[in-house]
Specification:
Layout: H1 2-29, H2 35-78, H3 83-88, H4 91-133, H5 135-182, H6 184-189, H7 193-245, H8 251-292, H9 369-381, H10 386-390, E1 407-414, E2 423-430, E3 434-439, H11 446-453, E4 461-466, E5 469-470, H12 476-482, E6 483-486, H13 497-501, H14 510-519, H15 523-528, H16 546-560, E7 564-568, H17 576-590, E8 594-598, H18 602-606, E9 610-615, E10 618-623, H19 625-631, H20 633-650
Parallel strand pairs: 3-8, 3-9, 6-7, 7-8
Antiparallel strand pairs: 1-2, 1-4, 4-5, 9-10
Bound molecules: adenosine-5'-triphosphate.
Region (Disordered): 317-347
Protein name: ABC transporter ATP-binding protein
Family: Belongs to the ABC transporter superfamily. Lipid exporter (TC 3.A.1.106) family.
Length: 651
């Protein structure tokens, strides 16, 4: 570390100077001063200034490098955590750790580490030379410094805990502010600005209280040390003056000793300040380390990280942080015997459950849906099919008529907390080509099933197969390459419309983008926007309507050309014209891909080739719309309710 070396060298230059001053004074008293002494003194003086300037710059640069390295590692880590970790943590607090805590660590590393070292060198150098010059006078200094030292040491110990509490409070404050700003419209509509401000204000006041405590501790420390050293200088001056008067010591020695005593003030107060900052840094590092201890999705370690350390100094305190996550779950799960061949359940209409058909595993397209769908679309569209072109990279052998289905759930059990299962023994298949709808009451576990397919979570029991392969036997990267999920609330990211559409396929060309725009019925929006696809859509896509956001998310998914497309309530925010258009698009997609759609609207559900009904985490029925209306009371109820609800909108 060149910076530290230079600063230490600068300090040594300073430490030697009083010794030379002593020789100059003693020389002057005895007849003459050697000119080389004066020149050396001048060189040391100028050298000290230059070396210190360069050393400080290098140290500051190192600090910035450490900050960069730490932030890059932290950001890389934060984006690769297991999904369940995001469920449990507050985003604002995680952001605060990547933001303010890293700055505190930088201060500790860049400034106080070097300051600690140089002041230690300076203090020890001065002490050694003081003893060399006059050990008796030095004893006087020791007594004064020790008295002050006791108080300072007590204060230093409290700095770390106070600082840690302060940083945690800042984290909570950021999290609460993030909560309010992210839902600012709801806050306004609920006239909750005052309450939100109060919540945040409580943290601000707590941060103030802790800041004041820190100030109190710091204000005790520095003056105590300075008073101690200055007091000892006064005593040395008095006693030393007497000693010089009696010829016990030389005037040169006394001046040099006093210079060292004065010189001691700086390194001592620096040492104390540096220790304080290091204590704060250690507290902040603990908070940063806690983030690094959060488990990552293991396979995402295969995705290249930002090069966190290239050309940068190492980050003290972060050694030994595992590069990989700590996923303790087994990669393979044993298939549940007896379920490979299918599953049957008895009917119990009185209890509200339904007659379930036996679903043979691998019986893709068992309802003859894909074939029927194909001719329907050809007849319905009567035009070149953009989606068929857009999806012309469908892997061979996944047409659902032979081989494994695109998706198969086999006796899947899952709970966000294992003691409370959300999915219970769920089994169903999605053919390589075809449109399957997942329906059921709110909270039945539909979205959870799609999240398991994306491997956001893994089943507690049972298997999920993609093209016949257990998803846990493939990397998450590979699984997500085959499956694309359009989430329920269709998140749109800050950036341009184009950024959003190409988000999953950054290398898409203009023709492909135009095609996806057209297919997702975004053409009119693009024409209307001032800069076409380059128009900014605002934070979270606020400049778009809910339906437009959904269509942007669908365009994004279409462009990614997945083998399996998952849509979670894709038309919930669309008008009936767009919904009908999207239903047609879904048909087109289903000719080439597996399409699994969660839907509440019956118009969307009816378009499916096969419908799977989930209730309280269990598949209670599967079949076509007509069949389920006959056999499944729950489905009948759901469809009747929806038709009632949508009746005014569609007339
Ligand atoms: N991240 C999570 N952590 C804990 N529990 C969750 C989480 N997500 C969902 N749940 C719970 O799991 C259950 C199933 O939720 P899920 O979102 O799968 O239902 P859904 O059928 O999609 O409902 P909806 O139709 O209302 O979207 C619910 O009881 C829900 O409260």
């Amino acid at each position: 570390m060149l910076g530290v070396g230079l600063t230490v060298a600068g300090t040594l230059c300073g430490v030697i100077q009083p010794l030379l001053v002593k020789r100059v004074i003693d020389g002057a008293q005895h007849g003459g001063v050697a000119s080389w002494l004066l020149i050396t003194l001048l060189v040391l003086f100028v050298g000290e200034a230059l070396i210190n300037t360069l050393g400080h710059y290098l140290l500051e640069r190192t600090g910035q490098g450490v900050l960069l390295g730490l932030r890059r590692r932290l950001v890389t880590h934060l984006l690769r955590l297991r999904i369940s970790v995001y469920d449990e943590r507050r985003m604002g607090d995680l952001i605060s750790r990547a933001n303010t805590d890293t700055v505190v660590v930088r201060e500790a590393v860049a400034y106080s580490f070097a300051a600690f070292l140089t002041s230690l060198v300076g203090a020890f150098g001065a002490i050694a030379l003081m003893i060399y010059i006059d050990a008796r006078l030095f004893l006087l200094v020791v007594v004064a410094v020790t008295v002050a030292g006791v108080g300072v040491f007590t204060a230093l110990r409290r700095i770390r805990t106070t600082s840690e509490q302060g940083q945690a409070t800042l984290g909570r404050m950021t999290a609460d502010l993030e909560r309010s700003l992210a839902a600012i419209r709801t806050v306004r509509a609920s006239r909750a600005e005052g309450r939100e401000a109060e919540r945040i204000d409580a943290h601000s006041r707590e941060a103030y209280r802790l800041g004041v405590r820190m100030a109190r501790l710091n204000s005790v420390i520095a003056p105590a040390m300075e008073l101690a050293v200055q007091g000892s200088v006064l005593v040395v001056l008095l006693v030393g003056g007497v000693l010089v008067a009696h010829g016990v010591t030389s005037l040169g020695s006394l001046v040099a000793f006093l210079l060292y005593a004065t010189y001691l003030v700086m390194p001592m107060s620096q040492l104390i300040e540096a220790t304080g900052i290091m204590q704060r840094g250690m507290g902040a590092l603990d908070r940063v380390d806690a983030v690094f201890a959060l488990p990552r999705e293991p396979e995402l370690d295969a995705v290249p990280d930002l090069d966190a350390t290239s050309g940068l100094e190492g980050t003290p305190g972060l050694e030994g942080i595992p590069a990989a996550g700590l996923d303790g779950r087994p990669i393979t799960a044993s298939p549940r015997d007896g379920e490979r061949g299918g599953r049957a359940e008895s009917a119990d209409d009185a209890a509200g459950s339904c007659l379930i058909r036996v679903i043979p595993a691998g019986a893709a397209g068992a309802d003859g849906a894909a074939e029927a769908g194909g001719s329907r679309v050809a007849a319905a569209t009567g035009r070149a099919n953009p989606v068929a072109r857009a999806v012309d990279r469908a892997p061979a052998g996944e047409d659902g008529s032979s081989g494994a289905p695109a998706v198969e759930f086999r006796g899947v059990w899952f709970g966000y907390t294992p003691s409370q299962p959300v999915l219970r023994d769920v089994s169903f298949t999605v053919p390589g080509r075809g449109h399957i709808a997942l329906v059921g009451p709110s909270g039945a576990g539909k979205s959870t099933a799609l999240e398991l397919l994306e491997r956001f979570y893994d089943p507690d029991r049972g298997e999920i197969l993609l093209q016949g392969v257990d998803v846990r036997a493939m990397s998450r990267e590979a699984a997500r390459g085959q499956v694309n999920l359009v989430e329920q609330n269709a998140p749109v990211l800050q950036g341009s419309l184009r950024d959003n559409i190409t988000y999953a396929s950054p290398n898409a060309n203009e023709a492909e983008i135009d095609e996806a725009v057209e297919t997702a019925r975004l053409g009119e929006l693009v024409t209307r926007m001032p800069n076409g696809v380059w128009t900014e859509v605002g934070d979270h896509g606020v400049l778009l309507s809910g339906g437009e956001r959904q269509r942007v998310a669908i365009a994004r998914a279409l462009l990614a050309r997945p083998a399996v497309l998952l849509l979670d309530e894709p038309t919930s925010q669309m008008d009936s014209v767009n919904e009908r258009a999207l239903t047609q698009v879904m048909h087109d997609i289903a000719q080439e891909r597996a399409l699994l759609v969660i839907a509440h609207r019956m118009s969307t559900v009816r378009a499916a080739d096969r419908i799977v009904v989930l209730d309280e985490g269990q598949v209670i029925a599967t079949g076509t719309h007509e069949r389920l209306v006959e056999t499944c009371p729950l489905y009948r109820r759901l469809s009747a309710t929806d038709l009632e609800a949508t009746a005014p909108a569609t007339t």
